[in-house]
Amino acid sequence: MKKIFVLAVSIAALTGCNRGGQKAGYVIEGRIAETRTDVEGRYVYLSSFGKEGGVIDSALISKNAFTFEGAATNGQLCKLSFEEEEAARPGESSAFSTFFILQDGKMQAVLDTFSYVTGTPENDAFKTVRESIATARKGYADLVKAIRAGDREAEKKAYQIDMDVLNAVKAYIEANPTKLSAAKLLHEFRYYIDEGEQEAIFAKADSTFMSLPGIGPMVAHLEVLKSVAPGKTFVDFEMPDPKGKMRKLSDYVGQGKKVVLIDFWASWCGPCMHEMPNLTATYKTYRKKGFEIVGISLDKEEEAWLKTIKEKKMDWIHLSDLKGWKSGGAALYGVNSIPCTVLVDRDGTILARNLMGDELNKKLEELFAKK
C-alpha cells in the first residue's frame, strides 16, 4: 500500500506542476490603456466563446491593471472585455476587448483601441495577423466616404485593401489548420472565402479546429449547397405572391418552357439595388426569348417590398414570406448573402449560381443560341 501511495503522489506531482516547479495552469497579467481614466474599481471579464459560452471569471481593475489565474486548460477560445461593445469588422475586435486562446502558461494582455494577448506561440501569431489586418485598414473609413461620393480611385484602393486582408487571412488559416485562432478567422471571413476553399480547409483541419462554435453550421451550409449545386434538380418551395396568394416555385420553374433566374434580394440591400438596373436590362433583352425571373425577397416589411418592386420597375414574378434571413426559400438554397442568384434550365436542372451582369448575359446568349 505504501508503494502505491508513493506512486500516486508522484503522478500528482507530475500532473500538477510544470518543469519549473510551478502549479500548472494559466496566469494573465493585463493592463488597460492609461487614456482610460474611468476604469478604476470596475471589472474585466473572461468569457468563453460561442452561444453556450459565458463568463468564466472576473478580475478587479486596480491602477489600470488586472490579473487572472486559473487551473490547467486544454485551450479554448475566450474573450477579455469590460464594457458593452460596438460591432467589429471581420478580423478585428472591438476597442478594449480581444479574443484569444486560453492556454497554460503566463500571458500578457493589453486592452486598448487595439487589444491583444501574447505569451504563447499561438496567441503571439494571432496578434501578428490581426495587427497586420488593422494596419492594412488604416484610413479605410475615409476611403468609404470617398466611394460614397463617387471616387473611383478610392474604390480601387479599398478593393486592394480587402484583397490584401483576405490573402493574409487565408495564408494564416492555411498555415494553422489545427489552431482555434485560424478557425475563428475562418468563421469571421466565411462570407468572403468561397465554398470550394472552405471545403479544402475542412479537409485539412483537425478536431480542435472543427470544435469551434460556428464551424459546425458552416459545414452544414456546405452540405445544403451540394444539394442545390449545378447539375442538381431545383428544390421546390411555396410562398405568397404580392397579392397574398400561395405560389409554388414549380409553378414557374421546370415547366419545360423557360430558363428561370431565381433572384434572392431585399429592398434594404445596397448591392441588390446596385445590380437591379443590370437585371432589368437583361430581363428586357431575353424575356421574349424564354427567360423569366422569380424574385425571392428577404424583406420583412411588405410595404418596402412592394414599393421597391414598383419604383425599380421589376416587372417579373415575385414571392416572399417576409421573414428576412429566416426565409424558408433562402434556407433551402443555402443563401447567406445577397444578391444571390440561381439559374435553372427549362427542365429544372440548376445551371449556375451567382451569375450577374455580363456573366449572366453571356450565359443566356449561349443558352438561347442553342435553341
From TrEMBL:
Q: Does the keyword Cell membrane apply?
A: no
- SUPFAM superfamilies noted in UniProt: Thioredoxin-like
Main localization (coarse): other
A GO cellular component entry from the record: cell envelope
Record-linked PROSITE patterns: PROKAR_LIPOPROTEIN, THIOREDOXIN_1, THIOREDOXIN_2
Keywords annotated in UniProt:
Cytochrome c-type biogenesis, Disulfide bond, Redox-active center, Signal
What does UniProt give as the signal peptide span? Answer: none
Q: What is this protein called?
A: Type IV secretion system putative lipoprotein virB7
Tell me the classification of the organism that encodes this protein. Answer: Bacteria, Pseudomonadati, Bacteroidota, Bacteroidia, Bacteroidales
